[in-house]
Amino acid sequence: MLVAFSIAPAATDPDGSVAAAVAEAVRIVRASGLPSETNAMFTNVEGEWDEVMAVIKQATDAVLAHADRVSLVIKADIRPGHTGQLTAKVQRVEDLLD
């Protein structure tokens, strides 16, 4: 399964940034060893349901350490039997653009 998630504290740093809290979440995703990528709006993670959801929970708990309230958005592409889709889905589109 592929999951795109965005997590942020509901309150910002004094300068309006959420970067420190988000960095803690990204650190957890990267340490998980699951295929992942982070962009300006989401972190994408690929793996089995239980392992992906466990990483999202750990990331949420890390952000909760920075604030009493957290916003979490999750979008999932659940396609049993398919792996390597983090890059393959993008490549299929790129191939059509060439």
From TrEMBL:
Residues 3-94 form the Thiamine-binding protein domain. InterPro entries: MTH1187/YkoF-like, Thiamine_BP, UPF0045_domain. It holds the Pfam family Thiamine_BP. SUPFAM superfamilies: MTH1187/YkoF-like. GO terms for cellular component: cytosol. Coiled coil: none annotated. PANTHER family: UPF0045 PROTEIN ECM15. Belongs to the UPF0045 family. This is Uncharacterized protein (TIGR00106 family).
